[in-house]
Amino acid sequence: MGKTNKATDKQSGMGNQVIKGQNFYHDRKKASYLRLLKSGKPTRDRSGKIVKAADFQSTEAKVGRVEPNRRWFGNTRVIGQKALEEFREKLGSKVNDPYQVLLRQNKLPMSLLTSSNAEGGLINKRSVLAVESFGSTFGPKAQRKRPKLSVEDISELAKDTEEKNSNYEVEKDVNMREQEEKISKEWYLGAGASKRIWNELYKVIDSSDVVVHVLDARDPVGTRCRQVEKYISKEAPHKHLIYVLNKVDLVPTWVTSRWVKHLSKERPTLAFHASINNSFGKGSLIQLLRQFSKLHSDKKQISVGFIGYPNTGKSSIINTLRKKKVCNVAPIPGETKVWQYITLMRRIYLIDCPGVIQSNTSDTDIDIVLRGSVRSNNLESPEDYIPEILSRVRKEYIQRTYNIENWADSTEFLTELAQSTGKLNKGNQPDLHVVSKMVINDWLRGKLPRYVLPPGDQDGPEQQTTISEADLGMMEGINQSLTKIPVMTEYLPIDLKNEKSQKPQEEQEAEQKDSVEFVPESSSTDPEKATEEKPAREVDWDDVFGSVVGEAVNADPEELQNENDAEDSELDSEDIDSDDSDAERDQSSKKRTHRLTTNKLNTTKNFYQLNKVNGKSKSKSKSKASTKLMRLPGSMRSAKTKPKK
After folding, report:
1. Do residue 334 and residue 198 come from a single domain?
2. CP-type G domain: which residues (predicted)?
3. CB neighbour list of residue 58: distance below 8 Å, 6 or more residues apart
4. Number of domains comprising the chain
C-alpha cells in the first residue's frame, strides 16, 4: 500500500469525497475507454445468436441492382447542329464585346467553337501526314531538319504573298532599318524598356484580376501600350482591361468627351483627374471596381493592377483613391522602381507598377522625349527638341507663357527667353542648354496647353459632339458628367468654341427644368401630384463619394449607407464620410456672414471667479494684485500675505 499525500488532500479539500452522479470506481474518461473496447463486439444470447449488432455491422443487406436504362450506357449530354450554330452566332457577337462578362460557364464543347469560319463550325486541322510523311520522319530517310510549310499548294502561297505585298510598309521593315540600328542610341532613350522593368510588369499582370491602363489625356494614342494589350488578350483573356484617361484637367472638356467616345468602342473608358482634395472620376472608378469584385464573388479578394507609360499618373490615382500619400509621386518619370501592393478595401487591392515603354520602330527620338519617358536632366542636347515643341503649340500660348512676341527660329526664341529669365553665362552669353530644359519641363507639366484629337476626327471644336448610349454601348455603370471636370489650363476661345455642344442631352433637359419657376401652393395644380410626377434626380457617383469639391451630396446618408456593401472595409467608409464633410464645409463657406466683434469689457466670468472655493476668493482683481506682488524683485512673500502700508 502506497502512502497518500495527506497534505495535498487537506489543501485541496477533495480527499475521500464522492461526487454525486459519478461512478465511484471509474471516472468519465475510464468509462468511455471501456465502452470503446466493448463496442466492437456484437451482443449475443445464450445460444450464440446476435441480439444486438455491433457498430457498422448489420445481419441483413439489401441487394444492389442497376436500373436497366439506356442512359447509363449512352452519351450524358447531346447537342444538335442547330443549337450549336445558334450558340456560335451568339458567341461570335458577344465574345469581342468588352462590356459583356461571362457569369456562368456551361459544360459545352468550346473547342468546336474556336473557329467560326470553319466549315460546319469545326476546326480545319491540317493533316500531319500531308505535311510530314511517315517515311520522311522515321526510318533511314528521316530528315533531321524538316521544313514546316504553312501552305499546302501554290494557290495558297500566291494568296499569302499578295496579302503581304498589300500590307507592306517600308518604314516598318526591319531589314531596311539595320543601318540605323547600328548607330548606337543614347542610353537614356532606353529608359523604361529594360528587362527588369518588363519583369515587374509581368508580375503585376499575373497577379491582378483587373488591369487598368492609364493614358495621358493630352496624347492617349502615344501613351498606349498596344503590345501589352495584345499580350493580355492572347495569354490572359479572362482578365478585365479598362482605360483611365488621366490629366483631363489639362485639355478642354470636348476633347475629353471625344476621346472617351473613341476609346469606349474598344474597352470601358473613364475620365479621371488625380487630386487628393479636388478629384474627378474617383466615385465612378470605385463603383466600377466594386462591380468587378461582385463578379468575382468566389474569390476572397481581387487585385487591380495599374500599368502604362511613365509619368502618366498611376501612383497619383492610387493616392487619390486612398485619399492620402501611399505611393511616392514626382513630376519626373521613373519614380516608381518596383511593384507595390496597396489595400483599398477588404476585398480590393491595388498594385502599383513602374512605367513601361514599348519598343516601336516607328517612334523617333523626339517622340520618346516629348511623351515624358525620359528625364530632361539626362538629355545631352535638349535644344534639338525645341523646334518640335514650337510647331505643336499655338503661337499665342507661347507668347502668353513667356512674354515673347516674335522669333524667327528656335535659337532666337531660346536666346530671348534666356535674356528675359537671366539664364546667362560669362560675357552675357545665353545658356541655351538650361533654357531648353525649362521649356521641355513646361511642355511635360502642362504649362504649355496642347492636345491631340482622335484619329479620323480633325474637324476641331466646331463639330458638335454628344455622348449617347448608342455610341458608347452598354455604359450604364460608368456614365460621367464631364461638365464637372475642373479644367486648370486656360485655353483660347478658338479651342473652347463649342464647349456647350458636348453636354449630354439629359443634362440640357435638366437645366431647362431647373430654369422653370416654382408654382406656389395657391395655384390650381395639386402640389402632391406635382411632386409625384417630378422624376427623381440621378445621383452621380462623384457626388456620392465627394470627389468634386463644392458639390453638395443630395442623397440621404441612410440610403447611401444601405447601398454600401457590408464587405467594404472601414477605409472606404472613412473616405466617404470625410469627402461628404468636405463638400458640406465648402458649401457652407460660400454663405459668409458678417464678422462678429467681441466686447472685452462685457466678458463672461466662470464659476471660480464668482464663488469662493476652499475659502478663497477667485476674483480677477485680487489675483492680479497677488501676481504683481510676487513679481517684485527680491520679494519672497506668498500670495496670502498682504502688502504693508
Report:
1. yes
2. 198-359
3. none
4. 2
| Under 8 Å between Cβ of 478 and 288 | yes
Let me know if residue 210 belongs to a domain.
yes
Alpha-carbon distance of 269 to 214, in angstroms, equals 10
Domain membership flag for residue 207: yes
- What Å distances lie between residue 523 and 512, 520, 532, 606, CA to CA? 22, 6, 17, 56
| pLDDT winner (highest mean) among 281-290, 472-481, 494-503, 507-516 | 281-290
Supply the range of the domain harboring residue 393.
Answer: 365-445
Same domain, yes or no: 340 and 381: no
Domain co-membership, 438 together with 374: yes
| Beta strand spans in 373-505 (E) | none
End position of a domain, from candidates 289, 318, 352: 352
Helix, strand, coil % in the chain, rounded to nearest 5:
40, 5, 50
CA-based nearest residue to 308, from 205, 454, 206: 205
Going by DSSP bridges, is the β-strand pair 43-44/50-52 parallel, antiparallel, or unpaired?
antiparallel
Which residue has 444601405 as its cell numbers?
562
DSSP letter assigned to residue 245: E
Answer whether residue 139 is part of any domain.
no
Same domain, yes or no: 300 and 339: yes
* 42 touches 52 (CB < 8 A): yes
CATH code of 381's domain: 1.10.1580
CA-based nearest residue to 275, from 247, 311, 242: 247
DSSP label at residue 213 = E
Distances (CA, A) of 110 to 87, 115, 261, 295, 422: 10, 10, 33, 22, 71
Of 427, 445, 463, the residue at which a domain comes to its end is: 445
Whole-prediction pTM: 0.61
Is pLDDT at 564 greater than 60 in this prediction?
Answer: no
Q: According to the model, what pLDDT value does residue 181 have?
A: 54
231 and 253 share a domain? Answer: yes
3-state class of 446 per DSSP?
coil
Q: What angle do CA 358, 360, 365 make, to 5 degrees?
A: 100
312 and 194 in one domain? Answer: yes
Nearest to 450 by CA among 438, 440, 437: 440
Q: How confident is the model over 140-181, as pLDDT tens digits? A: 777 666 566 677 778 888 988 898 888 888 777 766 665 555
Question: Does residue 348 contact residue 293 with C-beta atoms inside 8 Å?
Answer: yes
- Same domain? For 396 and 339 the reply is no
Please enumerate in sequence order all residues whose Cβ is within 8 A of that of 24, keeping only pairs 6 or more positions apart, or say none: 18
Where residue 208 sits, what CATH number does that domain have? 3.40.50.300
pLDDT tens across 585-597, in order? 454 444 555 555 5
Distance (Å) of CA 57 to CA 34, 35, 61: 20, 17, 10
Let me know if 178 is exposed, middle or buried by CB neighbors in 10 A (0-12, 13-18, 19+): exposed
